[in-house]
Amino acid sequence: MPFDPEREALLEAAVAKLPKLATIIAAMPIDKQAEALRIAERSYRLTALKLRLGDQGLFWVLAVMDRLRGDTEAKTLATQLRLRALYREVMRISAE
To answer: How far apart are CA 90 and CA 96, in angstroms?
Structure first.
């Protein structure tokens, strides 16, 4: 069953913010990312409860969190690869 337009707009707004949230979480130290993801999941679950989405809300939370985790992992990996490349470049320059 589709959501009513007001709920749909709220859910779309939350999903639209996922790339920015993933960037913020990916910038955190690795040991803090899991906690940040748990907090985000709790927030999305509360949103689903407040909107009275029922079982559909749980599926929405799972889908949102799957995307957020994937985006965060991709951004973290990209940052690590850039840092490694930068390190190699610095080491190459310092060896000259």
So the answer is: 10
Contact 64, 15 (CB under 8 A): yes
Cα–Cα separations (whole angstroms), residue 16 to 19, 22, 90: 7, 11, 37
Tens digits of residue pLDDT in 52-77 = 999 999 999 999 999 999 999 999 99
Please give the full DSSP string across 27-92, using - where no structure is assigned.
TS-HHHHHHHHHHHHHHHHHHHHHTT-HHHHHHHHHHHHHHHHHHHHHHHHHHHHHHHHHHHHHHH
Helix axes 30-50, 5-16, angle to 10 degrees: 170
Q: What residues does each domain of the chain span?
A: 30-95
